[in-house]
């Protein structure tokens, strides 16, 4: 049913702009699911720039912790654009208020994330309209020297794989250029 496209890449690679381009090309009404909680002036400026770039006709839904509930707010035949999974996971991880999460904390947390993402993907797959999900690729760099950074990298990598397996198409954006990825191997 629902057609899902995943867009990933590094910071400032052009992921959001490419996702917005694809959404515009669909010639459907668009609902933008935002995950960023602008906590400081830099983030508020970033949100303002993103909003200014999007057509005024696009509706915005704030995701909060529940992606599936946010996706349910998108009319069935509209384009759903979620930007971005990486920020959503960061918000959820920081809500633990634990700079050195142990495996005992992370294991149930990851189970919850996996269930929450599965619930979101269930909503997306039941939709008639297409969906685009933006995320960051953070596993290409140096292993973070602190526990929270390693937990974030690992959690995001596994969630990205979960979304990718459900997607009909996936793109890696490098220096503003989209590279279409082959289907997953499993």
List the helices and strands and how they pair.
Layout: E1 4-9, H1 15-25, E2 30-34, H2 41-53, E3 59-62, H3 67-72, E4 79-83, H4 85-94, H5 103-126, E5 131-134, H6 147-166, E6 169-174, E7 177-180
Structure described in brief:
The protein has 186 residues and is α/β, with parallel strands linked by helices.
Structure keywords:
Rossmann fold; 6 helices; seven-stranded mixed sheet; 7 strands; 186 residues; alpha/beta; 45% helix
Shape: globular
Instruction: Give the H and E element order.
Output: EHEHEHEHHEHEE
For the sheet with most strands, the description reads:
7 strands, mixed
CATH architecture identity: 3-Layer(aba) Sandwich
CATH superfamily: P-loop containing nucleotide triphosphate hydrolases
Helix content: 40-55%
Strand content: 15-25%
Taken together, the total number of domains comes to 1
End-to-end Cα distance: 21 Å
Broad CATH class: Alpha Beta
- Structural class, by secondary structure, is alpha/beta
- Tally of helical runs: 6
Strand order of the largest sheet: 3-2-4-5-1-6-7
Mean pLDDT: 91
User: Which fold does the CATH topology refer to?
Assistant: Rossmann fold
Rg over CA atoms: 16 Å
pLDDT under 50 segments (min length 5)?
A: none
